[in-house]
Write a structure and sequence with these properties.
Phosphorylase Kinase, domain 1; about 35% strand
Length: about 250
């Protein structure tokens, strides 16, 4: 087993020290959480599938000029990424009413929104990831106005591209969450897409049946969660070469 120093552990991933300066190894876990970790569980093989799905989507976005932290996939559960300074803001793009939007405004789930709506949430488990405005973000120094402009522009480009990509395989991109980071190269900084893009942070519905093929199956106790993730990977043409046989986590060095 590789011995690596653990940098950070979140709900679904672990970050380890990378093989060279400025890099990290991102390890995808099978752990699943919902409702700010009030609900917890394990979905066997989820980490393997999310690693492959996120790799595929990050590479596709990179091909159209969207900068990301992704470098390459290392194995079944790990990928090499660039080390970035994460901006503590989650950017949510909504195309169809679902989740918290339906509760806040009483809109029936599945209602097509008049246009894509972008929302911002402050990353804080203790506070429950509260929704914030652009004024909060800039006033509290979480991101500069130019950073925010870049994040918004990138998020909308991601939405345009992924909406078409998923539609081509019979899926509707209902909404999704993305995170961004500051990548420093020499003395220059640029905003890049970070974290992951997978059924963990995208709502994906079958175009014909509206069947949910994302983490809502876990949130709402719909069952067949792993099978839904597998179906997304199958439609993308990237099912893992092995099944959900796991790649063990690297041995930690405290």
């Amino acid at each position: 087993m590789t011995r690596r120093r653990r940098i950070y552990e979140g709900k679904a991933k672990i970050l380890f020290e990378g093989p060279e300066p400025g890099t990290l190894v991102q390890y995808f876990k099978d752990d699943a959480t919902a409702f700010n970790a009030q609900k917890k569980g394990t979905i066997t093989g989820k980490g393997v599938l999310n690693n492959r799905i996120s790799e595929y989507l990050m590479m596709k976005l990179g091909e159209i000029g969207i900068p990301t932290h992704f470098v390459r996939r290392l194995n079944m559960r790990e990928q090499l990424i660039r080390e970035v300074e994460i901006i503590p803001i989650e950017v949510v793009v909504r195309n169809v009413a679902a989740g918290s939007l339906t509760k806040r405004f009483g809109i029936p789930e599945g209602t097509q929104l008049p246009r894509s709506i972008v929302e911002y949430y402050y990353k804080s488990d203790e506070l429950g990831d509260p929704m914030v405005s652009e004024e909060h973000i800039t006033a509290f120094g979480w991101a500069a106005p130019q950073d925010l402009d870049d994040m918004l522009a990138l998020a909308l480009r991601v939405n345009d591209y992924l909406s078409g990509l998923f539609l081509g395989i019979g899926l509707r991109l209902v909404d999704f969450k993305v995170e961004f980071g500051r990548l420093w190269e020499n003395e220059e900084m640029r905003i890049v897409l970070a974290d992951e893009i997978s059924p963990d942070n995208c709502r994906l519905w079958d175009v014909k049946t509206n069947e949910k093929l994302d983490k809502d199956r876990f949130r709402q106790d719909l069952g067949n969660v792993a099978e839904a993730y597998q179906e997304v990977a199958r439609r993308l043409g990237i099912l893992p070469e092995a099944g959900p046989g796991d790649h063990a986590a690297p041995k930690l060095v405290q």
